[in-house]
């Protein structure tokens, strides 16, 4: 029996639409959404997940939304061991993390793999807002990039990025920097072939420093949250920043790479950006 069938059998009185049908698996932690109506049953739901999945050691429920400058997700442990630290494996890379203090979403795994396939041999790549390091490490692992850097403001996430670099010893092209990307990027005095801004809420604040650090004809990947079908608003943010910084978009594509609720999509604008001179 799957989770939904197991829970429905345990709680026949509960409306089927309230029963959690699955969870996000981060290492050996299950992250589940428990509707408020089922709060009294949350411990049993957690125990049912532990019983069904022998490699899960912790069950945590979402206790709110991603928020704050470090974009962390409030979680409450409902069953299993009392910890939110784990080791997660994604796209052939080992990632240590602590869900209590850093942002990490397994739902971006496909997007990270997609970006890695776009990298040309020898490229220099900057990932702004690199968290515990999944984008730089997956790019380093699956491409022939010459140099990949990650910049992250959350000191705990940066600490994990350094630990993850040590844990994936074969990846030699990656370096991590701690700080605000808007200040750190210019201080590196380097122009990049490709820059990713992985801050879907407020990433436009990093467009000026990114455009200044992007080589002529370089590629920008700009993540944004947009109402379904409204990618023109995302394009407008980049077009405006380009106009203010002597750049123009030569060509672009918009990829939908997740969602935040039924009507809001996480999109990535992939744009090749020329200089206007
Ligand atoms: C949506 S998360 C993405 C993390 C990572 N790239 C990933 O895929 O797991 C955004 C990250 O940006 C960091 N951040 C927010 N503002 C920043 C800034 N101005 N400079 C550097 N990092 C920033 C947050 O701490 C958070 O870790």
What does this structure look like?
With 277 residues, the chain is α/β, with parallel strands linked by helices. It has two domains: 3-83, GMP Synthetase, Chain A, domain 3, CATH 3.30.300.110; 105-275, Vaccinia Virus protein VP39 (Rossmann fold), CATH 3.40.50.150. Helix content is 29%, strand content 33%. The protein is built from eight helices and 13 strands. It has helices spanning 3-10, 42-52, 109-118, 134-142, 155-167, 181-187, 207-213, 231-244, and strands at residues 24-26, 29-32, 58-62, 75-80, 85-90, 93-98, 124-128, 147-152, 174-178, 192-197, 214-227, 247-259, 264-275. The strands form three sheets. It has a seven-stranded mixed beta sheet with strand order 9-8-7-10-11-13-12, sandwiched between helices. The protein has a four-stranded mixed beta sheet with strand order 1-2-3-4. The radius of gyration is 20 Å and the shape is globular. The model has no long low-confidence stretch (mean pLDDT 96). It binds S-adenosylmethionine. S-adenosylmethionine is lined by residues 69-71, 103-104, 108, 129-131, 134-135, 151-154, 157, 180-182, 198-199.
List the topology elements:
Elements: H1 3-10, E1 24-26, E2 29-32, H2 42-52, E3 58-62, E4 75-80, E5 85-90, E6 93-98, H3 109-118, E7 124-128, H4 134-142, E8 147-152, H5 155-167, E9 174-178, H6 181-187, E10 192-197, H7 207-213, E11 214-227, H8 231-244, E12 247-259, E13 264-275
Parallel strand pairs: 2-3, 7-8, 7-10, 8-9, 10-11
Antiparallel strand pairs: 1-2, 3-4, 5-6, 11-13, 12-13
